[in-house]
Specification:
Number of helices: 12
Keywords: Hydrolase, Magnesium, Metal-binding, Transferase
InterPro entries: CMP-NeuNAc_synthase, Cytidylyl_trans, HAD-like_sf, HAD_sf, KdsC_fam, Nucleotide-diphossugar_trans
Subunit structure: Homotetramer.
Helix content: 25-40%
Pathway: Amino-sugar metabolism; N-acetylneuraminate metabolism
Cofactor: Mg(2+)
Radius of gyration: 25 Å
Strand order of the largest sheet: 5-4-1-6-10-7-11
Length: about 400
Amino acid sequence: MPDSAAGVRRVLAVIPARGGSKGVPAKNLAPVGGVPLVARAVRECRAGRLVTDVVVSTDDPAVAAAAREAGAEVVLRPAALAGDTATSEAAVLHALDAHEALHGSPVDVVLLVQCTSPFLVREDIDGVAAAVAEQGADTAVTVAPFHGFVWRRSDEAGEGGAGVNHDRSFRPRRQDRPQDFLETGAAYAMDAAGFRRHGHRFFGRTELVRTDPARVLEIDDPHDLARARALAPLLDADLPGSLPTAADVDAVVLDFDGTQTDDRVLIDSDGRELVSVHRGDGLGIAALRRSGLRMLILSTERNPVVAARARKLGLPVLHGVDRKDLALKQWCEEQGVAPERVLYVGNDVNDLPCFALVGWPVAVASAHDVVRGAARAVTARPGGDGAIREIAGWILGPSLDTLPQ
C-alpha cells in the first residue's frame, strides 16, 4: 500500500465481514484456494496501488483475528449493524467514522469491498479507486459485459414471463443490441464526503469499471462456495504469490499414499503390499533436501514400505500416526519451524487438519475435491506421477536442474 504522506489522497478500503450467515455458516472464514475469504479480500486491497488503509468491519472474534493476521485494521461492529437487515452502507459509514476518529485525519475516498467475491483482484480495486481519486467520478462500481436476455414472472401465480431488457417478439443479434453491464457486487468506490451526505454508494457521476467476466462469482450458498473452490486453482494461478518459492518455505512435509504414490496397492500371494512411485519425484525430493529445506514424510499408513521409501530418499519419517496434525505440530516445535513456513502436501480428507496448521497447504491434482478446495495451491500432475517433482520446481525454480543429484 502507498504511504499516506502529505499530498497523497487517503483511500480507505472497508471490507464488511460479519460472523452470521444463514446460507453458508462462517462464510467469511471459508477457505478458497487455501485462504479464508476475508483474508483474500484484505490481500488484494493491500496490494492495490492507491489504497492507503484497509479496515475489516466485523462482529465476530474469529473474523477479526483472521483479518488482523492478513494485515487489516479491525473495527468491531455493534450488534445493531450486524443483523440480517443491516445495510453494507451502514457498516461502511460506521467503519469510516471509527477509522477517522482513531487516526485523526479525514479519508478522501472510501471503498466497499465484498469478500464474498473471491476472485476480485487488485486491478479491479485500483480501477474503482482511480475513477474517484484521479478521474473525477463521484462513485464507481465493478461491472462485467452482459449479453443475456432478462425475464421476469408476469403474474403473482408465477405463470408466464415477460421480457425485462428486451421485446420478446423481437430478438436482435448480440452485435445489434446496446452493450449492457452486470454489476458484479465486488467493489465500489465513493467520494467520502459525498457518501456521508447521501448515505448511499451511488450518487453523482458513477463510473463503470469493467472486469473480467470469468472472475465474477458471488458466494451466497454452498453451491457457490463449491464452484469457487473448483475454480480457484485455475483463476489463482496467474496471481502474484500464488505458488510458493524458496523465500516462502522453510520445511516440506509429505503425505505418502496418494501423493508419492497413485494410491493403488498391489498385493502378492504372500499378502505383501507393493506400491508404485515416480523417479521424477525422487529427484525433486533430493533437490529439496540438498537445498537445505527441512523435510519429513508423515503418514497414517503402517506398511513397512513407507519407512523403506523414506530410507531410500534419506528423509525422516513418522508413520503409523493416528493424529497427523498433532504429530506435525510437535515436529514443528522440535525443529524450530514456524507452521506458517511449512508446505504440506496431501490428497485426502485426513490431511485437512494438517492443512489448517500450515501456511502452504498443497493438494495433488488427484486429491479429493474437498482437499483441492482447501488447498492454497494444486499441482497439475496427480499423485505418484511427478506431483512432488512439480512442487520442487515451484520452490527451487531454475536452480532445480542445477543442484547435484
